Amino acid sequence: MSESNARKRRTQAERREETRDKVERAAMTAVARLGFEGATIDAIARESGMSRGAVGAYFPAKEELWPVVIDRACRALEDDVARAFDESQGAGMNRVRAALAALLAIRSGEGAAQASWPELQRRAAREPALRERLAPALCRAEASLGSKARALADAAGLSLDGPPERAGRVILAVISSIAERARLDEAGESAPSEADRALVAQLTRSLFSV
């Protein structure tokens, strides 16, 4: 194979990957804006600026998109947790509170990953088939968050109460509650509320001890 043909093949593969990424991002945005039911293939096509057929070439049915979308949302969450926890300073409970407050600020911001996450979780809670498809990404996220919580406890000179997986589940539950509150806020406020701060305080007390 000539170098020009090899480069052409690489370029085609790159273009295909870029298009797939565009479809996945459009799906996340459609879920965030329209909810699970409203995020049809047609809606995703409109969001991506592509034809329905072009979207269907990558994901013939929207059900095939959801494991991909929630996996991306999980990875975005893991990145946010790592950033908030790794950049926290101080010792003891003050460090934990600072890390969780930073995470709260990040997750309360705007973004398709943040907004699509709770919508997919709510739907999965009601539909066993969807829950089964999303389970691997959720389990990985819980394990990752639990591991980071343990590292935060070590850095702060504290103990993590219970297994890391429990910490991961609790953090996910709190983040989902905060995201749901923001979604229902008629004023459209994205800044952390007093209820959000109370959840963070409860999270600190339930997971970490001296």
Keyword list:
9 helices, 210 residues, two-stranded antiparallel sheet, mainly alpha, single chain, Tetracycline Repressor, domain 2
Describe the structure.
- With 210 residues, the chain is an all-alpha fold.
- The chain has 2 domains: 62 residues, Arc Repressor Mutant, subunit A, CATH 1.10.10.60; 145 residues, Tetracycline Repressor, domain 2, CATH 1.10.357.
- A two-stranded antiparallel sheet has the order 1-2.
- The longest helix is centred in the N-terminal third of the chain and has 36 residues.
- The model has no long low-confidence stretch (mean pLDDT 81).
| Poorly predicted spans | none
Read across the widest sheet, the strand sequence of neighbours is 1-2
CATH topology of the largest domain: Tetracycline Repressor, domain 2
Number of domains: 2
Task: Spell out the CATH superfamily of the largest domain.
Answer: Tetracycline Repressor, domain 2
Could you say which structural class the secondary elements and strand pairing correspond to?
A: mainly alpha
Q: Output the helix-strand order.
A: HHHHHHHEHHE
Give the overall form: elongated
CATH architecture of the largest domain: Orthogonal Bundle
CATH domain class of the largest domain: Mainly Alpha
**Secondary structure tally, helices:** 9
Question: Describe the biggest sheet?
Answer: 2 strands, antiparallel
The strand count comes to 2
Report the sheet-strand fraction: under 5%
Mean pLDDT: 81
Determine the N-to-C terminus distance. Answer: 64 Å
